Amino acid sequence: MAGQTLSEKLLSRKAGRTVRAGEIAICTVDFALGTDASVPMALDYFDAMGGTAPLRPEQLIFAFDHYAPAPSAKSALLQARIRRFASAHDVKVFDVGAGIGHQLMVEHGYARPGRLLVGADSHSVMYGATGCFATGIGSSDLAGVMMSGKVWLKVPESIRVELTGAPGAGVGGKDIALALARRLGADGAAYQTLEFHGDGIAALDFDDRLVIANMVIEMGAKNALFPVDDIARAYLAQRPWQGDPDELEDLFADDDADYASRLMLDLSTVEPNVARPHQVDNVVTVSELGHTPIHMAYLGTCTGGRVKDFREALAVLREHGGPAPGVQLVVTPASREVMEDLVRGGELADFLAFGAIVVTPGCGSCCGTGGAIPGDGINVVSTANRNFKGRMGNATANIYLASPQVCAASAVAGYLVAPSQLGHR
Description:
Layout: H1 6-15, E1 24-28, E2 31-35, H2 39-48, E3 60-63, H3 73-89, E4 92-94, H4 101-107, E5 116-119, E6 133-136, H5 139-148, E7 150-154, E8 157-164, H6 173-184, E9 192-197, H7 206-215, E10 223-225, H8 230-237, E11 261-266, E12 273-275, E13 283-285, E14 296-300, H9 307-320, E15 328-332, H10 336-345, H11 347-353, E16 357-358, E17 379-382, E18 398-401, H12 404-413
Parallel strand pairs: 2-3, 2-5, 3-4, 5-6, 8-9, 8-11, 9-10, 14-15, 14-17, 15-16, 17-18
Antiparallel strand pairs: 1-7, 12-13
Helix pairs in contact: 2-5, 6-7, 9-12
């Protein structure tokens, strides 16, 4: 019999038996995330199931990030309901201003190698950068976890993604993620794992891996898995450890594991990319674009709101004197920790000096429930992970997805460009 993929190994551990792709596995969950956008419905399901108290409240984390701060009386009431439930049952809450739940799950040490994490938000796949099986679930499934501490999953087939080479100057995790989206399409990895291998992984820092893992859902993937190497260990060593420190170990796929398909990507061939409206797989290189004017540059979200992202963008802005007249610059840190780092380093003051609008740490404008909503017909270049029509709260706006460096360069030029093109305006 063939060996196991990493997904099969991780889910076998949590199911208490050997499982293979295609099987249904009932798995014990290590931690489950709910947000202020998904917990209220989960509580409705929990009540309908006859729930009185979560079986394992210590495995639940609630994050107030989609409505931060609450933009309406209705959302404030929903948040109050979550607070009451969490207080009554000793559930961990990251309240308004703490940041995006996905960022917090990694920063605070919930995401660790070998674990099974689920989140009632599709971008929970991001935690796979730490070597854990992580996937999004619905609010009803979250209620099921609250009742039983477990979740049922169909064990996914895996695509082996072999990364070689190293990215060139001005190319980062977002460009690589968009290159994969261009290759695979919006459903090319439907209900499959993207399992990353190859020497090219060593050329990716941990932030790059978070971005790539986050965006596999835009290719239909069930989860992403990166190996636990020295770069991952160095990052995790700086983070607190939630849960039992003796339960985990490094896991790797077997050499003879059975993969549904294989994909090769030479990172040295990846260029700065842009996803055009209104699909994430509508990707072209920046050099292929015509003269596309930009009215808003959005820096933030769980794919572009970390310290590295802001520093890369700020370096471009400083070099070229800031945004062009008429371009609105919006800054939304992914967490309070990120914002505090930017304050200490002086970067936040520089953004303010460039006229940036600074928004409370959280999801901000990404899903259109708060933050700076673009006006009618506005072209936005954003570090976010989705550009669907209406995604930022205005269906007439056009959202282009790009790296922090491309977003900053486009803010400087007033139209979509890469930093390397600014000298040739």
